[in-house]
Structure formats: structure tokens, C-alpha cells
Amino acid sequence: MKSKILVTGGLGFIGSHTVVALQEQGYEVVIIDNLSNSSLDVLAGITKITQITPEFENMDLRDKEAVANFFEKYPDINGVIHFAASKAVGESVENPLLYYENNLSSLIYILQHLSQKEQASFIFSSSCTVYGQADTLPIKEDAPIKKAMSPYGNTKQIGEEIIEDTCKVHPAFKAISLRYFNPIGAHPSAEIGELPIGTPQNLVPFITQTAIGIREQLSVFGNDYPTKDGTCIRDYIHVMDLAKAHVVALKRLLDNSSEKNYDVFNLGTGKGNTVLEVIQSFQKSTGEELSYKVADRREGDVIAAYADTNKANSVLNWKAAYNLDEALKSAWKWEKKVMKIEKKH
Questions:
Q1: Which of 47, 107, 160, 342 is the most buried (most CB within 10 A)?
Q2: Which residues pair with 58 in a beta bridge?
Q3: Which CATH code, of 3.40.50.720, 2.60.120.10, 3.40.640.10, 2.40.10.10, is assigned to 4-185+236-267?
Q4: What residues contact 178, with CB distance under 8 A and at least 6 apart?
Q5: Where do transmembrane segments lie in this chain (predicted)?
Q6: Which residues pair with 305 in a beta bridge?
């Protein structure tokens, strides 16, 4: 019997795709989600894809007592993939205390229980924001961690430090932080995908919502950066590739195949694309015209960030399989599906 795995934030964008990947590998999954940035419809999507309904607990991980009760109810959980966190950079600047409370207290309460087990494995959803504007590209895992450009980025840096410190004093506790670059796309079935509530914070949902007519025009923030076309460069990775990486990393911990009990990995394609290249790729792969305008630079945006993926490729034996066109095509298929559902309602 494969392990029982807790996925926090398991109805969110990356979480839901990871739940599917886990269930397809035979893991039993329990999801915790407070539905603050997700929808219960996602559970139905997961069930439709895998023919299995994961156990679901609607709870807020900031509630210390609720977390204690959860681990009492599920004593056989020995692996956790922790996605649950607030993740909008702009909002974190406006409301830093909300971010510190939500992103750090939930992490601490889970670790307090997990670290007491005889053996436990923990995967942390981290981010390339920990690097800030890196001195050299592509970015390696040992690149210096710069002062965070936002409270959101800072919660990821502090989160990694908390986990590393916990691993030092609990040798049986094993953890991996996965620093991902820019997740995009959707499951090929279009049963689950990215579902931003309110105005999207990320480029691709903004592109698909503009193409379908929800938004009038896409804003490209700045075209005077020192890049080939003046727009920012990011490493866009298909969410399906990302989900697989979580399963591979978890298996590494559960199998005890790592000498270290704490490690970090970059997850990206290893290739950077400018904002204009993403727009062109979307138009080419979907045949849709996109209305966009150049706007002022956004505060806190780094010029360029893309991953050196050699460590994940060699140590985890994982490599991104999908290209940008395929990822954008799947995001468009998902957007059209969402639009159909909304028209029905």
C-alpha cells in the first residue's frame, strides 16, 4: 500500500494537478483547503480525471487547534506537500501582516506535528522569488539569496529557513524545497486549470481572459528593459511538468534515497522567454489575435529570471517535457471550458 499524503492547498492551481499526479501513481491523498482562493468544483475535476475522490478537509491552517485535530484524525500521514499560502506580490506589499501570518503560521503548525513523527517527508512549495534579480543567468540553486523584494518573497525565504532549521534538529524528518519559476497551462483534459479569483496576477490568465473577451486589453509592463525586445524574461513551465516533479521529489524522500535530510531544487524549463514572445507563441498556437498595449514598469519586477535545471535533471531524474506552445494551448482550452461553465450559470 502506498503512503497517505497530505496536500495542503490541494484545490489550488498547482496543488490540484499534483493531487492528480499523486493519485495516478497510487498514492492515497488527503486535501486541506480553506477555499479562499479556490473552488470546490476542482474536487469534481480531480475525480473526473482519476476516477478517485480524494478525502477533503475544509479548514484554515492558521487555526492551531484544527491542525492538531487533523493529525489526530489522520495519524498515518507520513508525507506532506505544502502549497497552502497567499501568493500575490502586490497584495503582500499592501498587507504584509496577512502574508506573514498566513504563510508562516500554517507552515509552523504543520511542522510541529510532522517533526514529532518517527519518520516524515515534507515538500515545500517555494519560488524563484527567493533569488530576486540574480547576478548570473541561468540561476543555480547556490545563487545568493538576495533581500526579498516583497513580503511574499520574504515568506518563502523565511519558510525555507524554518524548514532547514527543523531538519537540523530532527534527523528523521526529511524535506525538499522546490523553487519554481512561472507555472502555466492546464491538465490536457481541461477538467482543472488555473482559476484566478478577481484580477489575475499572472501573465497567462491575463492573456487567455483578454483573448476570450473578459478583459479589453493586455498590459505589457515596460518595454525598455535590457532584453532582446525590451520586455521582461521569465521561465514558463507547464503545470503538468511541475506536478510530476513534486511526485518524484516526494518519492525520493519516502524511499530514503537522499543522504541529506534537506535539499533544494529549481523547477523550470531552463529557457527564458520575453513577455512579447509569450504573446506571439499564444497567437501562433491558438490562432487568436491578442490586443495589448505597453504600460509603465511594475514595481518589484525583476528583469530576467530563468532556471539552471541541471540539478533537478540529474539528481531527481526529472526534466520538463512540454514546450511553451503546448502549455499555452492547454491554458486556452481550459479558458474556453471555464467560459462555457460560466455561461451555463
A1: 107
A2: 33
A3: 3.40.50.720
A4: 123, 124, 125, 126, 245, 246, 249, 264, 265, 267
A5: none
A6: 234
pLDDT digits (tens, 9 = 90+) for 161-181: 999 999 999 999 999 999 999
Catalytic residue numbers? Answer: 152
CATH 3.90.25.10 range(s) for the chain read 203-234+270-344
What are the pLDDT digits (tens) for 97-114? 999 999 999 999 999 999
CATH of domain 203-234+270-344: 3.90.25.10
CATH 3.40.50.720 intervals, the chain? 4-185+236-267
- d(CA 324, CA 297) in angstroms, rounded, equals 24
**Is the distance from CB of 104 to CB of 159 less than 8 angstroms?**
yes
d(CA 31, CA 61): 12
User: Which residue is associated with the grid cell 540539478?
Assistant: 311
Read off the C-alpha cell for 167. 531538519
How many other C-beta atoms can be found within 10 angstroms of the C-beta atom of residue 278? 22
